[in-house]
């Protein structure tokens, strides 16, 4: 059965397309353009009451939230790929990274994103949080190819959009986190996902 991915322009839907490309899961894209105020169009509320993307339709299941979708697709189609091997602690560390992206990291990065969009300054509190998290990521990634070591996981797929937004906002900087983002972007499955969903961030 083909999964339908409802994809908003410049959205987190690239994460889901990336996983499905890696797994060769059949899917089709329904794309939506953002409004002039950078919001989702009203039509998305016909698919999910919150009117946000990504949303998938998999048979009778309509599912939002990137992390939930990634977990669902992996469980149904992944056959153990892109989740950690090992003991329960490895799973716990993976879930920490997977949930960290939207639960903690995205708030200061979003503040930086909107500062750039509005041609304004980042507030001091958000800047402090950005410095904290960028330092944390750079330190963690200094000796690793991926968040959990040598193997790609769902957590890396979740991180892609956040770091692309950080680069757009001008707060990613150089070093290990930037190199990590470049490694992710160079993967053929990511290139195919971006072709399917459109650019991750605006040009200007």
Automatic annotation (TrEMBL):
Gene3D superfamilies: 1.20.1050.10, Glutaredoxin. CDD domains: GST_N_GTT1_like. It holds the Pfam family GST_N. Residues 1-81 form the GST N-terminal domain. GO terms for molecular function: transferase activity. Residues 87-204 form the GST C-terminal domain. InterPro entries: Glutathione-S-Trfase_C-like, Glutathione-S-Trfase_C_sf, Glutathione_S-Trfase, Glutathione_S-Trfase_N, GST_C, Thioredoxin-like_sf. Keywords: Transferase. PANTHER family: GLUTATHIONE S-TRANSFERASE 1 (PTHR44051:SF9), GLUTATHIONE S-TRANSFERASE-RELATED (PTHR44051). Belongs to the GST superfamily. This is Glutathione S-transferase. It comes from Palleronia salina.
């Amino acid at each position: 059965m083909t999964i339908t991915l409802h994809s908003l322009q410049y959205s987190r839907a690239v994460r889901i397309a990336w996983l499905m490309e890696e797994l060769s899961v059949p899917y089709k894209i329904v794309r939506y353009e953002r409004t002039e105020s950078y919001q989702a169009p009203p039509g998305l509320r016909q698919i999910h009451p919150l009117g946000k993307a990504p949303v998938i339709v998999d048979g009778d299941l309509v599912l939002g939230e990137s992390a939930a979708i990634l977990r669902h697709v992996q469980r149904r189609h992944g056959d153990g790929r892109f989740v950690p091997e090992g003991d329960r602690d490895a799973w716990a560390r993976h879930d920490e990274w997977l949930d960290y992206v939207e639960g903690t990291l995205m708030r200061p990065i979003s503040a930086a994103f909107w500062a750039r969009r509005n041609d304004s300054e980042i507030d001091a509190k958000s800047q402090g949080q950005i410095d904290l998290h960028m330092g944390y990521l750079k330190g963690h990634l200094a000796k690793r190819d991926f968040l959990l070591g040598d193997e790609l996981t769902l957590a890396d797929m979740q991180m892609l959009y956040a770091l692309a937004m950080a680069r757009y906002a001008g707060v990613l900087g150089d070093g290990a986190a930037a190199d990590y983002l470049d490694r992710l972007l160079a993967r053929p499955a990511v290139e195919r996902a971006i072709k399917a969903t459109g650019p991750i961030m605006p040009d200007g």
